[in-house]
Amino acid sequence: MKIAIVCYPTFGGSGVVATELGLALAKRGHEIHFVTYSQPVRLDQLSSNVRFHEVHVPEYPLFHYQPYELALSSKLVNVVKQFDIELLHVHYAIPHAYAGYMAKKMLAEEGINLPMVTTLHGTDITLVGNHPFYKPAVTFSINNSDIVTSVSKSLKEDTLKFFKIRNEIEVIPNFIDCSKYDNKAFTDCQREMMADNKEKIITHISNFRKVKRIDDVIKIFYEIQKEIDAKLMMVGEGPEKEMAEDLVDELNIADKVMFLGQSHEIDKILCFSDLFLLPSEKESFGLSALEAMVNGVAIISTNTGGLPEVNQNGISGYLSDVGDVQAMAANALKILENDETLEKFKNNARSVAEKFDIKNVMPLYEDIYQRALHTTL
């Protein structure tokens, strides 16, 4: 099957999932064409059946904001015609599903039927998509997709609550390729670059936006380090980073917190981590938690959105209400204070993550694709 995938090429969860999905499909013999404005960060190698097509948006003085949707839809039309694409899979409702629909209509004028699968990831529904300016376009795009999927039951429920949706929404969870995390070559001496042997390593990875409640991460760690020796690894960049650095200084724990910025060594950091903090205001799924779990890291998270579908309370970690710093710190100490308990939670986290292995999720997408193809024949 020849499939065009449209996604954001950044470190965000939707772009990571889309890229990993495309690479996995290519391994199964499908021809994959990524169409976006720059090469996706996880797309580290191209081949005869994995190609990247860059969307150029020419600058024109008439436009205050350059019309990416127009450039994307036109590029899609060209790629579909040039490579005989059979199916379009867009990740994120806006602007990708909207641009995909326009491409479908342009192609239909030439007698080409292109089925479109739209995957909803989170803020395209709960934040951006629900804004009054965009809501009509998002509703229209979802209702005019051939098949719609959502990465969690929670996101499906939010979509049906916020929008007047006619289409059925099918839940296909985010996934992880567990085989990539076996037989790690990392050594204990590399762990010592981050912390002493007696120190527990706590980690947070995100885009440092307000929704991630970065101040809660710092406050939870502050309570943890009062009781046990620990280091906090803060991985990522974003608007809340400066605030976090100021709070660390204010609490006088700068010697125990490392800000690592955007890192391509996420797996190495997680491999040596004991606990992962995710106190978000909202998470449609919690892909970063899943990536931590597959590395055998216990999770302390909120109980919002799709997180309870990923982090099993009392098994892979603990769930708490949004903003309940004291409860999250107390749960963290329950896990960390006893090495036997810590090891049990770490093993459980890996076991729970294996349920989301790509080998279990991939057939669900391939079934969706076949149905989309037969729907438009």
TrEMBL record:
<dbReference type="GO" id="GO:0016757">
    <property type="term" value="F:glycosyltransferase activity"/>
</dbReference>
<dbReference type="Pfam" id="PF00534">
    <property type="entry name" value="Glycos_transf_1"/>
</dbReference>
<dbReference type="InterPro" id="IPR001296">
    <property type="entry name" value="Glyco_trans_1"/>
</dbReference>
<feature type="domain" description="Glycosyltransferase subfamily 4-like N-terminal">
    <location>
        <begin position="11"/>
        <end position="179"/>
    </location>
</feature>
<dbReference type="GO" id="GO:0071793">
    <property type="term" value="P:bacillithiol biosynthetic process"/>
</dbReference>
<dbReference type="InterPro" id="IPR023881">
    <property type="entry name" value="Thiol_BshA"/>
</dbReference>
<feature type="domain" description="Glycosyl transferase family 1">
    <location>
        <begin position="195"/>
        <end position="351"/>
    </location>
</feature>
<dbReference type="Pfam" id="PF13439">
    <property type="entry name" value="Glyco_transf_4"/>
</dbReference>
<dbReference type="InterPro" id="IPR028098">
    <property type="entry name" value="Glyco_trans_4-like_N"/>
</dbReference>
<dbReference type="InterPro" id="IPR050194">
    <property type="entry name" value="Glycosyltransferase_grp1"/>
</dbReference>
<protein>
    <submittedName>
        <fullName>N-acetyl-alpha-D-glucosaminyl L-malate synthase BshA</fullName>
    </submittedName>
</protein>
